[in-house]
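Ticket 4471: requesting a sanity check on a complex prediction with iron/sulfur cluster. Repro inputs:
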Amino acid sequence: MADLPPYLSPSSATAFDGCPRRWMFKYVERRPEPSGQAAIVGSFVHEVLEALCGLPAPERTQDRAKELARALWPSVEENDDYLGLALGEAEARAFRWQAWLAVAGLWRLEDPAEVDVLSTEQKVTAELAGVPFLGIIDRVDRVSGRLVITDYKSGAVPAARWRADKLQQVLLYAAAFEQIDGQQPDRARLLYLGQRVLEVTVTSPKIEEAANQLAATWDGIETACASDRFDAKPSVLCGWCPFANDCPEGWAELVQREAAGTLPDHAPARLLALA
Ligand code: SF4
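Returned structure tokens:
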């Protein structure tokens, strides 16, 4: 019988829904999951924007953001996951540029000098529909006296059919924030940097729906942990799974997709199928 985690975060819930076996490798066996290029860019961008929003509002300019990015970049270059990418000089330059474009993408969506920031990187714990929930809210703003929850995304905007699912995350943050603060936020937003804003008006029924979905995932985790059975859920995402080598179903999926020509060339685990 596997130990239940003390909390469920949105990323852990998404991971379990995506593939319980992969979740087990990461959250039960605690195997390290190296950050890929996208995740490294994401955490760098979050760090820069957190530092930027900690400045007095008039100082939140692109020039100051560049200074902050320059100051923080060396820590990225020392990171093991970054070193593991083994980038050549030109690739490293392109990577740095990609990271900066994500930071600068904020100005395509809003002027941070005009944002009334109440908090950044706020850790929230709460019990939502019986689930011990843990989240870190990128930013809480005040707009015309009302509260707005904001989460930054440096990846691509999801297809229309997945957007409601993605907004569940910020609805859960809104629910946890309300439990702690006593005020229900007015809106919750995902800022896809450089692209567009996805937004939802926060209401009690929407919060309840998001919390119930979280509870369904938690039930699945409880059942899996109690029975020590974590089913594999093979999909194209096996191509990005660092544990594919230890997962027969995932490995078979890779081989079958490679034979059918449906495994993208840039999928890191493709090498397994070619071996
Ligand atoms: S290889 Fe695929 S099926 Fe196996 S754990 Fe990874 S994502 Fe799940």
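Notes from triage: DSSP finds ten helices and five strands in the chain. Leaving this open until the requester confirms.
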